Description:
alpha+beta, 4-stranded antiparallel β-sheet, two-stranded antiparallel ribbon, 23% helix
Amino acid sequence: MSSVLGWVKILIASCGLAGVGVANEASWDVRLADSFSGRLKEIKSELEILTPALVGLPKIPIDDQGGTGGYAGVYSQASPSGDARFAVEVIWSKATPVDLIALVPARRYNANGLDAQYGLPDTFSVELIDAAGKVLRLLATEQNAATDPVRKGHPFVYQVSPPVEAAGLRISANKLRLDP
């Protein structure tokens, strides 16, 4: 019995010594990934460059991280009538150069599971506007956005080239999905 106890002590001691000096080495899973991916080192160096740039970007409020339900609109028809408009405007505190707009559809879970495009209009337009609401540039007019099965909640990304000095953004729905 004492010889078994002695071997256990030796094993514990050797395992402890084996870990000495290894703290700075990569773990086995990182070494394995490095051996299979030539691009992993390139990705790591890109992350080292991008990480300091992320510090200056706006913070996402904690309530907006991970599946908000979005705005629950109340409307009785799919398309606006007459001079009416279904639109959302976002006005910034001061005009700023805009070079890229990314719209991420709201998502929610319902009885059928994940609705990755909750409230997404089927047809909509995206415009950059000035402080008075005048259109500076039409960025996009999307057709069949909500009914396209390939989209499944993927963001809409619009490159603005050359950049436009804008005070806000307007998203106008031309055709909504009715939710009975």
